[in-house]
Structure formats: structure tokens, C-alpha cells
Amino acid sequence: MNLLAHLKSADSSGGGESSGFGSDMISNKISMEKPTLAFSGEERYLTPLWVSRKADELYDPSQDGFELSAGNIIQEKMKTVLKMLVFREQQVLVQFWSPRVVGKHRLLTTIDQPFGLGVVNEGLCSYMRDSESKCYVADKDLDEEDLSPPTRVFRLGLPEWTSNVTNYLPKDFPQQECAIRCNLNGYLALPVFDLTTGSRVGVIELLTSSKHPSFAYEVQQFQRALKVLIFPFFFNWLKE
């Protein structure tokens, strides 16, 4: 069974065309929402994100009295998180890997999940599209050698980062070739947990063109945004 094809088929639905900036590089069902939050202090000189918006999100079912599903609530929270972030450079991609159950397998996918771009260009959009073409099996009995960074972070509940994706062996970073082709070097992946249940709801992933020796600033950005939403991030590994 082709799990990715199954997943895409389950998610396929109608929708109008988008005229959003850069939509020709992304999808005719997705537009990019321009940054609107006003930042102060030094953050005024940093880079906020253009955040994805699907065409069918122009309609808000909650306005008609319908409750959002748990999955949709997480998506809305993650979009809010993305809008609160600012970065030290423009060439950044932030995307969310969400677990989905397909048949007997639990898969991590970015399909229909929010993402943010520091600038809308072909390199970042190309990596985002490549991610959508992948789905990683996150079953508990999966062999260690078959794991991707998002899968390892999701299963272990611990972060993973590097200043240069070439530090990975190709088998440990399946999208390494694509990242190099798109001029993406720095990498950070963080687990996201639900405070009420303690369960893992996904992995937030950052790629940058710069080879930052430390991602302390970016981690603080994610921590601040997720805490504001009472949508906690697992920080035990940060405690001294």
C-alpha cells in the first residue's frame, strides 16, 4: 500500500484558487499571509514570517456555531505561533510535522499543516514541496536506522539540531540532498506536547541558510510563542 498516496487521497477536497503572493511556487490552494503583527525594540529589525493560508480557510465554521476538530485547533494554534516568531535572517522555513494514522501505521506529514517563510522564494518553496512529498512512519517498533530527524524527535521527545545538514549521514537525513540544493544549512527540530494529556502532537522544524553555531535565540522564540498559547513545548532538556 502506498501510504503517502492514501494520505493525500484522504485529504483531497475542493477549493478555490488563491491569488496570494508566491502562490505559483506553492499551490493554487494556498496563499501566503503577509506579516501583520507590530514588533518593537530590536525585533523591528528582524524577519517575521509569511504564514500559509489554505483557500478553504477563508470560511470560518466556528462563526456558524460549528466546533473545530482537535486537529484543526492544533493547526490554528501553530499558525498563531508562526505569526509571533521573528528570525535573524530572511532565508528561513518553519513547518509543522503532524502525526496521522493511516491503516495500521502512524505517519508524520506536513500535508495540510501550517508553515512559514521568511521570504517567498523558489528555494524555500522547493524544500517545502519536497517535505509534502514525504511521510515518515513513526511506529514505536520502527528500526532506528530508518528514522528521519522529525521521526527521532517525535519518538524520543527530544530536540535535534545542527549548524550544517552535511554533518548528518545521508541515511539519517533523507532530505539532505534537497536541503543542500535549496541552500539550507542550519537545522532545528523541536517536539511539541499537549499540556493536558502529555501526548506529543507534532514536531516543529526550522531550516536556515546560515550555519548558526547555536540556536539558543530561535529556541527562545519558539518557547515564548508556545507558552503564550498554553501549548507547551518540552523543555526538560533545557534545564541546567
Automatic annotation (TrEMBL):
Protein's recorded name: NIN-like protein
PANTHER family for this protein: PROTEIN NLP6, PROTEIN NLP8
Domain of life: Eukaryota
GO molecular function: DNA-binding transcription factor activity
